[in-house]
From TrEMBL:
Domain THAP4-like heme-binding residue range list: 12-164
Superkingdom of this protein's organism: Bacteria
Cited SUPFAM superfamilies: Lipocalins
The protein's name in its UniProt record: Peroxynitrite isomerase
Biological source species: Tessaracoccus flavescens
Cofactor(s) listed: heme b
Binding of heme b, residues: 157
EC identifiers of the protein: 5.99.-.-
Protein's pathway: Nitrogen metabolism
Lineage: Bacteria, Bacillati, Actinomycetota, Actinomycetes, Propionibacteriales
C-alpha cells in the first residue's frame, strides 16, 4: 500500500496524508441542464501543523480547441479527520454556497455525504445535497462528485483523474 506521511504533518492527519500536495488534470461533467462538458482542474491539499488539511480547488472549462480555458468555479475548505476514521469537511464554493460533508476514510478511499448546505440569495446553483468519492488509483487522485439541486435529484456532476505535480 502506497501511504505517504508528509514531513511535519500533525499525527492526527496521518489518514489524509496521501492527499497532501498539488494535483492537476482533466475531467468530465454534466451540468444542471444535462449538458456535457470537459474541464481542467487544479487541487491543492496542504497543512500548517493544525489538526486539519486546508484545500483549494480551481476548475476551468475546456472550450473549443486552442482557446484558453474559462474559469468555471472554485472552492476552498477544511478537512478534519477523526480517530474513528470518520472525516468532516467544510467547503465554500465561489457559486455562493457552503457545504458540510461527513464521511469515512478507508486507507486511500474517502466517501463523503452532505450533512448541510447553506446558499446565498444570489447562488448560481441551487445546490441542495451531494456525495463525493475520492481515491488514490495507480498514484493518481480520482474523484466523482454527485450533486442534487432544488431542480433535480442526486446525479453525477463531475469526475476526474488528477496527477500529482
Amino acid at each position: 500500500m502506497d501511504i505517504e506521511v508528509p514531513e511535519g504533518l500533525n499525527p492526527e492527519l496521518t489518514a489524509l496524508g496521501w492527499l497532501v500536495g498539488r494535483w492537476e488534470g482533466t475531467g468530465n461533467g454534466t451540468d444542471h441542464d444535462g449538458n456535457d462538458f470537459e474541464f481542467e482542474q487544479r487541487i491543492e491539499f496542504n497543512h500548517n501543523g493544525g489538526n486539519y488539511l486546508y484545500y483549494v480547488a480551481q476548475t476551468f472549462l475546456i472550450t473549443e480547441e486552442g482557446a484558453e480555458p474559462t474559469p468555471f468555479g472554485m472552492e476552498t475548505g477544511f478537512w478534519h479527520p477523526k480517530p474513528d476514521a470518520s472525516v468532516e469537511v467544510v467547503l465554500a464554493n465561489s457559486d455562493g454556497w457552503t457545504e458540510v460533508l461527513v464521511g469515512k476514510i478507508a486507507v486511500t478511499r474517502i466517501d463523503l455525504l452532505t450533512d448541510a448546505v447553506v446558499r446565498t440569495e444570489g447562488a448560481e446553483v441551487t445546490h441542495s445535497a451531494g456525495q463525493r468519492l475520492y481515491g488514490k488509483v495507480e498514484g493518481d487522485l480520482m474523484y466523482a462528485l454527485d450533486r442534487a439541486t432544488t431542480e433535480h435529484e442526486l446525479r453525477p456532476h463531475m469526475w476526474a483523474r488528477l496527477k500529482r505535480v
